């Protein structure tokens, strides 16, 4: 028997019902809410580690590298298999780009991890070139009339924004390859400033709010479904781990400051 509340509950719009009928189901394992929040928290952890000393910064670099490479491997695999939608790529690639850029070896401390970070950034840059020149046409499209990105305003992924990113991607990969070729000679110098990693990280600070806005608005404007809840283990575990990592680095940084003050007092 129908009740008064029954029909009303059926007619009540839910967030999913308000999305356009052409909206796609996003790849939550790549950029679901838990994944995105864990990466945003990791940005903060990088800042904390950078000002807490090289030892902590080296640890976070390794963690970021593993996380970013795992995402890139899935992106490459899903692109080859045709499971990825074209409009999803800028969201994922921007998250990874800021991750890797924030932990780039400066002029500096070159180590095996540093070289691997450069290799990962080069792979990401090469994929970005392919995406804007060919991938945008090769990967799946939604049934919507247009697909959008955030660039201080709502813009189409195509037209001038695509041309802009073609140029940006080309300059990006040239810059990465140049740094890789030059870094050996720089690292071998005796008068290298070994504290530049702090300036490197803080210089990227303004890009963090841009990245968050670009990712969240692209998801909203394209009506991407199933990426805005933490309803699975795959979303919850990365988020909990990243929060735990941030708390650990905060504690380690505070303890280091306290120990330094104790040493100064004893002196």
UniProtKB/TrEMBL annotation:
Keywords (A to Z) from UniProt: Membrane, Transmembrane, Transmembrane helix
Keyword Transmembrane helix: yes
Record carries keyword Membrane: yes
Membrane-spanning ranges: 37-57, 63-80, 116-133, 167-189, 201-219
Protein name: Uncharacterized protein
Organism annotation: Venturia nashicola
Taxonomic path: Eukaryota, Fungi, Dikarya, Ascomycota, Pezizomycotina
């Amino acid at each position: 028997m129908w009740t008064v509340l029954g029909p009303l509950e059926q007619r009540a719009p839910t967030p999913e019902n308000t999305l356009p009928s052409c909206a796609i189901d996003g790849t939550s394992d790549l950029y679901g809410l838990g994944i995105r929040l864990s990466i945003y928290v990791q940005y903060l952890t990088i800042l904390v580690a950078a000002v807490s000393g090289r030892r902590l910064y080296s640890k976070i670099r390794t963690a970021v590298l593993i996380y970013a490479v795992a995402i890139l491997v899935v992106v490459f695999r899903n692109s080859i298999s045709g499971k990825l939608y074209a409009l999803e790529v800028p969201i994922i690639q921007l998250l990874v780009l800021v991750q890797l850029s924030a932990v780039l070896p400066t002029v500096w401390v070159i180590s095996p991890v540093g070289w691997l970070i450069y290799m990962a950034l080069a792979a990401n840059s090469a994929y970005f070139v392919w995406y804007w020149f060919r991938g945008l046409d090769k990967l799946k499209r939604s049934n919507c009339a247009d697909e959008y990105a955030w660039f201080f305003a709502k813009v189409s992924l195509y037209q001038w924004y695509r041309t802009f990113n073609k140029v940006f991607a080309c300059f990006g990969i040239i810059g990465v390859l140049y740094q890789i070729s030059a870094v050996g000679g720089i690292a071998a110098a005796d008068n290298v400033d070994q504290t530049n990693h702090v300036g490197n990280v803080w210089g990227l600070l303004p890009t963090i709010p841009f990245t968050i806005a670009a990712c969240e608005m692209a998801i909203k404007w394209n009506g991407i479904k199933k990426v805005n809840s933490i309803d699975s283990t795959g979303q919850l575990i990365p988020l909990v781990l990243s929060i735990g990592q941030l708390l650990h680095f905060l504690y380690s940084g505070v303890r280091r400051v306290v120990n330094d003050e104790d040493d100064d007092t004893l002196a």
